[in-house]
Design goal:
The chain is α/β, with parallel strands linked by helices and 432 residues long. Among the domains are: 161 residues, FAD/NAD(P)-binding domain; 129 residues, no CATH class. The protein is built from 13 helices and 20 strands. Strands 7-8-6-16-17-18-15-19 form an eight-stranded mixed sheet. Strands 10-2-1-14-20 form a five-stranded parallel sheet. A three-stranded antiparallel sheet has the order 11-12-13, with no helix packed on it. 42% of the residues are buried. Bound molecules: flavin-adenine dinucleotide (FAD). Flavin-adenine dinucleotide binds next to helix 1 and helix 13.
């Protein structure tokens, strides 16, 4: 049997292992002491802390669902939940006197408008509804005439200036930490909902809660959160933990890793490491582009918050830097052993503990700090040439039996299902 090395025991590497372990003698190298990468969880105060995100599963791809069902017993080990997300407004933007959901936060009211906001404009105060209707009429007249060139134009032209200023701009600027005009549109298109004016009107008339997005409904583990998913995917795999692969040497017929020879390698780490890890001539023409790839990190703060019915809470307010609360305590009863509710408050990039505490004190639901984790690479940012550049590098290396897949190897905004799908596509495309 030929020997295959996989770098990284995240969702991508573990999927590749599952797909190829009958055909090759596979060994996985992982720098951490547990599998999972971004989907790792910790037990803190008997409750479950997702060190990054909340990690729920769903997919539109039948082949990925079928792979998932081969590994997991969905009925036994997972809960199927309807997403119940909300956008919090704190400045009286929501219709009075009938507040649709309300929380008293110290001296002010916080109103929740269900997600997606464009379906719930009927809940906003009259001036905002009038302005949204005027936007729709204007958008309808200019429909098809122009193609958005950047993220700002994409959002403004699809949802109108009123919703852009109220929610999309402040929320996305907190996430992306940059002027939305500077974000390339190519790679976001198709990943975001693009309802027509007619659909938005229909959804508002009929109070339709969700649009057709992949996480309207999701599967979540009954116990152990996404760490269960990682542990189960890793079952029976030959994984060498606590091993950071900093050099992969080219040999006459293959590759050498830590004095062990392999015929093939699948790299599921970060493309930014590839130049130093491989040190071969084929990579040199790509080095400059790789060095300039941009990304964001995430600071995830594990908190106890006031009980509420939500899964995700989106926070456009400029009173604090956090953009989202993931109420992981609501995902499964096993996740929450606190008096109130366990949740993760998310900040883009690094933020110090002092700043975290200062921000929490200004946030709704009275978050009490427990612990936090900073992850340097969470959101890859593509520019217009990123896909073509990485595809050319992958084709070059594939000729030498070196393959790449994963969120940071492909520099793609993959969810878990897309990471599994990309692993499958790679195996099929290169006939590995
Ligand atoms: C905030 C956030 C929320 C998210 N929420 C969801 C969600 O709800 N649902 C969903 O489906 N997806 C979600 N995702 C996406 C999901 O996290 C990714 O699709 C998935 O985890 C990517 O897995 P991966 O294996 O490609 O990468 P990673 O998880 O980064 O795995 C890479 C692994 O390789 C290891 N590694 C790297 N380099 C080396 C090396 N040189 N030597 C040894 N080991 C190495 C790392 O330690 C890591 O374990 C979210 C992502 C973020 C950032």
């Amino acid at each position: 049997m030929k020997k295959l090395a996989i770098i990284g025991a995240g969702v991508s590497g573990l999927t590749v292992n599952r797909l190829l372990s009958d055909k090759y003698d596979v060994k996985v190298f992982e720098r951490e002491s547990v599998p999972g990468g971004l989907i790792r969880c910790k037990n803190v105060e008997n409750s479950l802390f997702h060190i990054c995100g909340g990690h729920v599963f769903n997919t539109n791809r039948a082949d990925v669902m079928s792979f998932f069902e081969q590994v997991f017993n969905l009925e036994r080990d997972f809960i199927k939940t309807e997403r119940n997300s909300t956008v919090f407004f704190e400045n009286g933007e929501v219709t009075n006197p009938e507040r649709h959901s309300m929380f008293v936060h110290r001296t002010s009211w916080v109103d929740g408008v269900p997600y997606p906001i464009e379906n719930h404009v009927y809940m906003l105060k009259k001036e905002l509804q009038d302005a949204f209707i005027a936007d729709l009429l204007k958008m309808q007249r200019s429909y098809h005439r122009r193609q958005p060139q950047n993220f700002e134009e994409f959002l403004r032209w699809n949802f109108g200036t009123t919703l852009y200023n109220l929610y999309f701009k402040p929320y996305n600027e907190k996430i992306w930490h940059r002027n939305l005009k500077k974000i390339s549109i190519d790679w976001l298109q198709g990943k975001l909902p693009m309802p027509s004016c007619g659909q938005m009107l229909y959804n508002n008339f009929n109070h339709i809660k969700e649009s057709d997005v992949v996480h309207d409904q999701f599967w979540y583990e009954r116990e152990g959160g996404s760490q269960y998913l990682a542990d189960k995917l890793a079952e029976n795999a030959d994984i060498q933990y606590n091993t950071d692969i900093s050099l992969i040497e080219r040999t006459k017929n293959g590759w050498k890793i830590n004095d062990e020879n392999f015929d093939l390698v699948v790299f599921c780490g970060n493309i930014k490491d590839i130049v130093n890890v491989l040190k071969i001539k084929d990579v040199e023409p790509f080095a400059n582009d790789i060095e300039h790839l941009e990304s964001h990190g995430t600071t995830s703060v594990f908190c106890e918050i006031d009980r509420n019915p939500y899964s995700w809470i989106y926070l456009p307010s400029d009173k604090y830097l956090a953009h989202r609360i993931i109420c992981t305590g609501n995902f499964s009863a096993q996740n929450n052993r606190m008096k109130r509710l366990s949740a993760t408050v998310e900040f883009t990039d690094y933020i110090s503990q002092d700043d975290i505490l200062a921000n929490l004190s200004r946030m709704p639901l009275n978050p009490h700090y427990i612990t936090h984790e900073y992850t340097k690479y969470t959101y890859p940012i593509q520019s217009s040439n990123t896909r073509a550049m990485i595809s050319a590098l992958k084709d070059t290396l594939a000729k030498k039996n070196f393959f790449m897949t994963g969120r940071f190897a492909d520099w793609e905004y993959y969810n878990m299902d897309a990471a599994m799908g990309a692993a499958k596509d790679m195996v099929e495309r290169f006939d590995i």
